[in-house]
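Database export, one record per block. Field names are fixed; values are copied verbatim from the stored entry.
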Amino acid sequence: MIGDAHSERSYTTLPAVFIAGDPPTPAPFLMNQAELIRFFRLHETHTRFPAKTIQRYRRMGLQTVRIGRAVWYRLDDVLRFLDRQQDRLNAS
């Protein structure tokens, strides 16, 4: 849905977001793939190939940032991706 509230949402002041664990830890602004897997809680859903799931999300529009050879996921990009997925589900 173009022009809806989620696509216009600003993440300049990010909400407090935590990664599940014992104890939960604040989500860093930049996450590597292992942190993103924990953030999405793919390890808890017994996803068989979580790295392939992340690759599929990248093909679906999840943005990345390259610093040197490392690939990072910005928290605000991840939250926007989740918003778009929710909007897509709500539209169907």
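Remark 1: The helical segments are 33-39, 50-59, 75-91.
Remark 2: Confidence is low (pLDDT under 50) at residues 1-6.
End of record.
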